[in-house]
Amino acid sequence: MKREIYMDYAATTFVKPEVLKEMMPYFTGYFGNPSSVYYISRKTKMAIDKARKCISKVINANKDEIFFTSGGSEADNWAIKGIAMANEKRGKHIITTEIEHHAVINTCNYLEQHGFKITYLPVDKFGMVNLQELDEAITEDTVLVSVMFANNEIGTIEPIKEIGELCKKKGVLFHTDAVQAVGNVPIDVQNMNIDLLSMAAHKFYGPKGMGALYVKRGVKIDSLIHGGSQERGRRAGTENIAGIVGMGKALEIAAQNMNKESKRLIYLRDKLIDGLLNIPDTSLNGHEINRLPGNVNVTFDFADGEIIVMALDDIGICVSTGSACSAGAIEPSHVLTAIGLSENGAKSSIRLTLGAKTTEDDVDYVVKTLGDIVLKLRENNKKWNERMH
Ligand SMILES: *Cc1c(COP(=O)(O)O)cnc(C)c1O
C-alpha cells in the first residue's frame, strides 16, 4: 500500500478533531445571529467572547484588541491599507521587506500605484532583516513598518523585538505578518512592541477562511470591510461563529502543547536537515538557529524542484517548491532570490514542513527516498554528468 506522508504544514493543516467537535454545535443548534437580542443569540455572543479572550491571552493582548477576519490575507490587507489610509496626512511612506508573503507584497504594490512610497528592504543570506538598514530607511514620511514574524518558505524568524523597539523609538507603527509564527513560537505583543499582528487559523489546526488582526488600543486604522457594527464597527459582516470558536480552540491547544511540540519538531527538523545534507551538493536555505520548528528548505544542485515534487507525489509524499506558478510560467521564488540564490538554485529547491502527524519514521523514509530521486535525476542531467566525468 502507498504510504501517505504530508510534509506541507506551512501551506495548511488539517482541523484537529477536538477543534471540529467544539465547532459543530454552532452550525446547527447555536445558530443565532450574535447581533440579535433574544436568548438563542446570547450563546453565540458568549462563544465569540470566549474565543476572543483565549486568542488575546496567547499573544498577551487585551480582548478588545482582537478583530476577526476571513484569514491571513485579509488581516494583512487590512493592516497595511487601513494604516495607510488613516495616516495619509501624516505621511505616505511604508517600509516592508523583499521576502514578505504575497498578501503583504501585493498590497504594498497596490498602494504604490495609488501614490504611496514603499521601501522593500533586502535581507541577508539567511533571510534576516538588518536593523541598521531599517533604521536608515525610516524617514519623516514613514507611517508603517511591516516585517513578517517568520518566513513561510525558508522559516527564518526575524528579530521582532528589536524591530518593535526601533519602531517605537522612531514613532512609527509596526505590523507583523505572524501567520507562520502564531501557535508555533511564543509571541508577546506588549514585550515585543507590536502594534498590529496578522494570524490565520488554518496554519495551526483550525478552520480555513478564518483569521484575526490584533490592533493595539489607540492605533488609528480605517476599515477594510464597511457595513454593520460587528467587531466594534471596524470589520462588518455577520460573524463566522463556528470559525471563530474553532480558531479559539485550536490556538488554546497549540499554546498548551507549544513547548513540548516545538521540541519534538525541532528534533525531527534537524534530523531531516542532517539526513538531506548528506546527499551531495545539497544546501540548506534559511537560518540554522532562528528558524521555525517545522521548516526545512533545501537546494539540490543539478535537480529540478518541480520534478522532485512530482516524483515524491507519485509515491505519496506531499512537499512543495518555493516557486509560485504564475500565469503558467514557473517564476523562481522571490524569497530564494532575495537570499541570493540564482534562478537555477531557486528552481532546484524544495520546502518540507513538519507538523502534528509527522513521525521519525516519516523523516527516515523521506531522507532515503529523496536521496534515490535526486541521484536518478542527476544521472539524467547533462551538466551533472559533464562535471562527474
Ligand atoms: C498562509 C499565509 C498567509 C495567508 O493566509 P490565508 O489565511 O491563506 O489568507 C499570509 N502570510 C503568511 C506568512 C502565510 O504563511
UniProtKB/TrEMBL annotation:
Cofactor field: pyridoxal 5'-phosphate
The catalytic site is made up of 325
Per UniProt, where does [2Fe-2S] cluster bind?
325
**Which Gene Ontology MF annotations are present?**
cysteine desulfurase activity
Catalytically driven reaction(s):
(sulfur carrier)-H + L-cysteine = (sulfur carrier)-SH + L-alanine
Q: Where in the cell is it found?
A: Cytoplasm
Q: Which Gene3D superfamilies match?
A: Aspartate Aminotransferase, domain 1, Type I PLP-dependent aspartate aminotransferase-like (Major domain)
EC number(s) for this protein? 2.8.1.7
Write down the PANTHER family for this protein, in alphabetical order.
CYSTEINE DESULFURASE, CYSTEINE DESULFURYLASE FAMILY MEMBER
Q: Give the protein family.
A: Belongs to the class-V pyridoxal-phosphate-dependent aminotransferase family. NifS/IscS subfamily.
Per UniProt, subunit arrangement is: Homodimer. Forms a heterotetramer with IscU, interacts with other sulfur acceptors.
| Protein name (Swiss-Prot/TrEMBL) | Cysteine desulfurase IscS
